[in-house]
Amino acid sequence: MSDEPEGKLIENALNTVCLAKVFKLSDLGACVLEIPARPQDYSLGSSKQTLRRKVKAAEKLGIYCRPVHDKDEQIALVATLDRAIAVKSNPLYREQDSDHSYLVGSGLWTVAFAQDGEPLVIAVTPRDGEWALLQAFVSLGETQHRSDARYLLTKVVVERLAVEGVRHLVDTRSPSQLPNGLRHFQRMLGFRIRRIRMRQSI
Questions:
Q1: Contacts by 11-20 with C-beta closer than 8 Å and gap 24+?
Q2: Alpha-carbon distance 197 to 30, whole Å?
Q3: Cα(85)–Cα(109) distance, integer angstroms
Q4: What are the helix (H) ranges across 87-126?
């Protein structure tokens, strides 16, 4: 990792102690998505059949994704995110009085929107050279079209990172911290458990 802010952010995430207050995420094995050099290659193959089907379903509903660079818009989206998390029906995902303001200005913001412009899912991915961090990937509700939007957003984010030369996307949570449903979702997207050895760039 470099000494740039986003490189430090990724390094700190991988150095997080997450099991028995002894083992680091990088030592135990993190959930890593290998990103192809050609963006269009990500959606190919039988393992991505569900991804392609869900992406088509989202596109038929008029769902679209775009980058969000404006900090005022990011601040408004963070407020929406905190409200959405507070009322999640599943207690595993619910969080009262959360404050995600630290995401503002952090890395690449990509957001899925409904046809009418309503934000559906937010992804924030800091990157450093060939590495990127899945710092946030949050649905702003629990409807089916938001579920479909997650697949479309994943495809867009991965393709965007591929264009920038990123080859590895790492989740901030260890596999043991993921609920079964989310773990299954990640496997369908191509995430696998990998140990990571870090070194400073020269």
A1: 11/198, 13/133, 13/135, 13/170, 13/172, 14/170, 14/196, 14/198, 15/198, 16/172, 18/173, 18/174, 18/176, 18/177, 19/174, 19/176
A2: 11
A3: 18
A4: none
Query: What global pTM score does this model have?
Result: 0.86
Number of neighbouring beta carbons within 10 Å of residue 62 = 11
Tens of pLDDT, residues 123-179: 999 999 999 999 999 999 888 888 899 999 999 999 999 999 999 999 877 666 676
Helix axis angle, 144-163 to 180-189, nearest 10°: 40
Amino acid at site 109: W
The amino acid at residue 8 is K
Q: Are the C-beta atoms of residues 189 and 50 closer than 8 Å to each other?
A: no
Average pLDDT over residues 10-34: 74
